[in-house]
Amino acid sequence: MYIVGHYIILTELLENFKENTFDIERLRQGLLYPDLPCGKYEFQGTKVSMVDKHVCSIKDIKSLLHTNYFKPLFQSHRGVYAFLHSMSWDPSLNVKQVRDKIIQYIMNFVVLSVYDDNIFKKPLRNDLIKSNEFWIGIVLHIIMDSYSKAHTIRLNIPTKTPSQKYFLKHKAFKDEIKNVLINIKNNIYNPQELKEVLFTKFDKEEERIYITKRIKYIYATYKMNVFDKQIKNVSKNFYKKKSVKVKTKNTYDITNFQYYNDQKSLYHKQYDFLLYVRKYKGLYERMIQECKVVLDLFKQVKEGHLTPKQYANQIYTHLVSHTFHIADDDLKQKTGVVYDTQ
Ligand SMILES: [Zn+2]
Questions:
Q1: Residue 255 in 3-state DSSP?
Q2: Which residues of 282-301 are buried (b: 16+ CB within 10 A; e: fewer)?
Q3: How far is 225 from 331, CA to CA, in rounded Å?
Q4: What H or E segment, with its residue span, contains residue 42?
Q5: Residue 308 alpha carbon to ligand 1 centre in Å
Q6: Does the pLDDT of residue 322 top 70, yes or no?
Q7: What percentage of the chain carries pLDDT values higher than 70?
Q8: How close is the Cα of 146 to the center of ligand 1, in Å?
Q9: Is the pLDDT of residue 122 over 80?
Q10: Which of 51, 105, 141, 317 is the most buried (most CB within 10 A)?
Q11: Cα(57)–Cα(112) distance, rounded to whole angstroms?
């Protein structure tokens, strides 16, 4: 969602929390992070931590024009990290697959919001609690984005999705590299070593030139993947997945996730504005309410009124029963399809 929109919503959200003790600057950084990710991941021993949570400058958005596929900024806007904006990153996936991954990532951030860089210390006890608003800011971003017409399709909101698959054709080879990165079993501690591993899988000259030129960024992407995997392994112990049958749809429930590459850039920008959330009666209020629940639970865990597990379970329940409350028949649909209800 349009960056200024996130700021405005956060300001209004915080009005619900008189005398709050939040670290607002960190909260804002996290809130903007999915749009402007310029962080740094490093191995510390065998674990990868996010050592720099740097938000890119708004000017860096220009680099999306001459794209570097392995930059997080690119992937976040147009690639595999589209789920950080409640969007589909691959139209061959169905709604359930996209929904589950969004929730899984939110849960990663939820556990990080309690332990921050203590996340890999063992055992993770209450005395290791180190809350950080940055991570909960990212969660709020994902929830807010799910209310953007350009990102999700919601019941009772007319949608027009022009199908423009102009970008997909450039993705194939690069996605293969990414698949290899995701499936590497043993840790790789430097770019050179990673290049050697990739060369065992890609032997065409042009592929090798491509890899050599970008190895620095490919290695950064690799570390990010390791980080994600390791966090998932920790966070899954904090909440119980529930399978809830959803037969009845509520007004404004999500019915599908949009796919960026189906959209004209202009369409995306136009419908990404806060304006469209305000246009439908009760929609803005629902979004604020859902963000409020999450922020309030964070406040409670931070102040010691909830244990990390209670906190994680309550957020999980909230996500499946509100923000991502999706009827069973919609879960089976392919994502990013053309829905024209206008
Ligand atoms: Zn976004």
A1: strand
A2: ebbebbbebbebbbebbbeb
A3: 26
A4: strand 40-44
A5: 27
A6: yes
A7: 92
A8: 9
A9: yes
A10: 141
A11: 24
CA distances to 41, 261, 283, 325 from 330, rounded to whole Å, are 37, 21, 20, 10
Tens digit of each residue's pLDDT (9 = 90 or more) over 133-149:
999 999 999 999 999 98
Q: What is the pLDDT of residues 182-231, one digit of tens each?
A: 899 999 999 999 999 999 999 999 999 999 999 999 999 899 999 999 99
Tell me the CA–centroid distance for residue 128 and ligand 1, in Å: 31
User: Ligand 1 centre and the CA of 189: distance in Å?
Assistant: 31
Beta bridge partners of 94: 334
- pLDDT-derived band at 170 (thresholds 50, 70, 90) equals very low
Question: For 41, which DSSP code?
Answer: E
Task: Give the Cα separation of 5 and 59 in Å (integer).
Answer: 18
Nearest CA-CA partner of 144 in 87, 216, 65, 67: 87
Q: Using one digit for the tens of pLDDT, what is the confidence trace for 46-68?
A: 999 999 998 988 777 776 666 67
Q: Where are the domains of the chain?
A: 3-331
Q: Residue 266's beta-bridge partner residues?
A: none
Higher pLDDT pick, 82 / 120: 120
| Nearest of 321, 306, 13, 277 to residue 140 by alpha carbon | 13
Cα–Cα distances (Å) from 71 to 39, 61, 205, 293, in that order, read: 10, 11, 23, 33
Q: Where are the alpha helices (DSSP H) in 47-158?
A: 72-78, 95-115, 133-145
Give the tens place of pLDDT for each residue, 247-277: 999 999 999 998 877 777 777 777 777 778 8
Residue linked to tokens 């030139």: 209
CA of 87 to the centre of ligand 1 (A): 9
Distance (Å) from CA 275 to ligand 1 centroid: 15
**The two three-digit tokens of residue 284, written as one number:** 């803005």
For residue 288, the CA-to-ligand 1 centroid distance in Å is 16
Contact 256, 113 (CB under 8 A): no
Joined tokens for residue 14: 């915080």
